[in-house]
Specification:
CATH class: Alpha Beta
CATH architecture: 3-Layer(aba) Sandwich
Number of domains: 1
Strand order of the largest sheet: 3-2-1-4-5-6-7-8
CATH superfamily: NAD(P)-binding Rossmann-like Domain
Bound molecules: NADP nicotinamide-adenine-dinucleotide phosphate
Number of strands: 8
Radius of gyration: 16 Å
Structural class: alpha/beta
Helix content: 40-55%
Length: 230
């Protein structure tokens, strides 16, 4: 069987780095991306396996286009895409007074980033008749338990979930499975040292979704390998 090609965004640290490590451990060729090329190289060097570093800033259309071109030229396809990169820059403001620059920056990274990446890579997957997309979302984006804190982040993750559903409908019946997941509260720079989960625990459901069999779910929201309410 052909070695699977996986692209992981924001993989220089945190959950993204763990996902890249786990996918490489499963024998995939992993394109480990980071917005700073030197950080991508350093992070790739820490992983034993077939890992190729590449620059990617998900907010930059030219950077996304350059990565797409690289993957097409080098491998001719992309089997797995993990949209992990995100920012969490809300301060203590509420939806009543949140600064619009915070909203714009957050949505640009956490929503337009995965949107651009899916537009770049899902057509490649559809063309080759195989693909797994994992959008790393959060319970913060869940409509049924929506809180009024961290408004930009919550909004961005709800939008990411909606985007997941739209791409999943487009891919329906094509051996391309597109899902989103919540890693739980994880000990990364974003989650902080007091978080309840390790990086391995946070990465587990993403890795499971990245390796789903063809009869696996499409267009779902998961945590701990179980479906969550939207
Ligand atoms: P993290 O430690 O803050 O890492 C975030 C990663 O995203 C970094 O590699 C960062 O790169 C990258 N990034 C940010 N902006 C980017 C851009 N424009 N282009 C490319 N990469 C960019 O966060 P984490 O905890 O590992 O979070 C990973 C994912 O899990 C995120 O989607 C987050 O929302 C989600 N999540 C985390 C938790 C948690 O408790 N940690 C809970 C729920 C959901 P730089 O190093 O260059 O900044």
């Amino acid at each position: 069987m052909n070695q699977k090609i996986a692209v992981v965004t924001g993989a220089n640290r945190g959950i993204g780095h763990q996902i890249a490590k786990d996918l490489a451990g499963l024998g995939m060729r992993v394109v480990l991306t980071a917005r700073d090329e030197a950080k991508a190289k350093a992070a790739a060097a820490k992983i034993i396996g077939d890992v190729i570093p590449h620059q990617l800033d998900v907010r930059d259309v030219n950077s996304v286009a350059a990565l797409k071109h690289f993957v097409e030229r080098e491998f001719g396809r992309c089997d797995v895409l993990v949209n992990n990169a995100a920012i969490y820059i809300d301060d203590d403001k509420s939806i009543l007074n949140v600064d619009m620059d915070t909203v714009r920056q957050t949505v640009e990274t956490n929503v337009y980033g995965p949107l651009l990446m899916c537009q770049a890579f899902v057509p490649m997957m559809l063309k080759h008749g195989y693909g797994r997309v994992v959008n790393v979302s959060s319970e913060s984006g869940r409509m049924t338990t929506m809180s009024d804190g961290t408004p930009s982040y919550n909004l961005s993750k709800t939008a990411l979930n909606a985007l997941t559903l739209m791409f999943a409908k487009t891919a329906r019946g094509e051996r391309v499975l597109i899902n989103c997941m919540c890693p739980g509260w994880v000990r990364s720079d974003m989650g902080g040292p007091g978080a309840t989960r390790s990086l391995q625990e946070g990465a587990d459901t993403a890795v499971w979704l990245a390796t789903l069999p063809d009869d696996g779910p499409n267009g779902g929201f998961f945590r701990d390998r179980e479906r969550m309410e939207w």
